[in-house]
Amino acid sequence: xxxxxxxxWYDKSQCWIYFNLNKGFTDFGLKLYRELIVNGAKFxxxxxxxxxxxxxxxxxxxxxxxxxxxxxxVEWIEQLGTFTLQTIGNEYDTTVYGxxxxxxxxxxxxxxxxxxxxxxx
Length: 121
What we know:
It is built from one helix and ten strands; from the N terminus they run ββαββββββββ. With 121 residues, it is mainly beta.
């Protein structure tokens, strides 16, 4: 079973908070989760993929593709039920999946995310 992990961008503190739903919540974790929902925090899901350096890839990450050098933002597309890579400054889209070897994506690298690295956008 794929790990159900989420990260939350919390505008109030300008930081990421991570949750792993497979491990459940402590009382503190559940209280914090409810507070985040009430305060309109933004939740983003783990894609189940790792980049070439073993870093987990989440929705709203900025990815660099190799060997093309194209940058893109990971986006969940509800109608397709999948994550895609919306390219930045190019006329076509590409896949977030790339080439997988031994659990790592050898053609994708996480270089940031849309909140902390807007310079890529």
